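Hi P.,

Sorry for the delay on this. The queue was packed all week, but I finally got your sequence through. Input first:
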Amino acid sequence: MLGGSGFLGSHIIKALQKAGMDGIAYGDLIPNNALNCKYVRMDILDVNDITNKLSNYNTIINCTGQITKPFNLCYKLNSFGIKNLVKAVSEKMNRLIHISTVSVYGSADNCNEKSPLNPETEYATTKVFAEQILLENYNQKQLTILRLSNLYGSRQMKGIFAYLLRSYNSDRKLNFNNNGNLTRSFMHVEDCADMIVEVIKNTKLTGIYNIKGHETYSVKDLVKQFENHFDVVFEKSFSDRLPWENINNFDDSKIRSAINFQPKWKLFDFIEKELGSQSYD
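Then the structure:
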């Protein structure tokens, strides 16, 4: 597991352990002390480092390349880092599962895995770079790309849910940099990790798959549902900026036909659990 210390990576490791899998290890620059798992310090930007350290693993899950500050590191991880990964594991014929994002599609009325890519943000553009490097240079029989929609979960410091919870516990003011029609599909990180474990179990699942959260909201709808559910009123401010990377009809039937999976979490059950139990400073 590359990037195993992070939000999704650490949950995948826990899901693998829960499924009874052995030989699990994670590579990252900094260990996650909450994980009871073998840690190997790895730098994906150092091809010699990862070549030596990845040689003993049959399946590699790549969770690197998330948004960073400065953003230049995100660019490097999704370009130089992916090129290094290809060099490091191609000869061993390792199975490679690469975590990407549905943002690569940009905005569209209808969208499936065959739809053209049209990223509208810097982050989505770097994820397109990473995918293209893999598709052009890696053995397609050993490659699986998972394009994920938005994730949420406990101790997540970024994203709209952390923002809503911080505001609820403070001044109850919300300021958005779009007109409120920004729409996303949401999946709990534990459900996503369990689904990825099912992909890992099935070695025949190669190619590209969309993984869509089962609950979809626009920003305005989400805030309204929050207000109704918890009997609160926020002071809301929206800009005139149009939403980006919005998809009206998002198709995830390919993965659903391959894996029989039912999510355990519902969004507002999660929010109710979190209210008052976490610090979002």
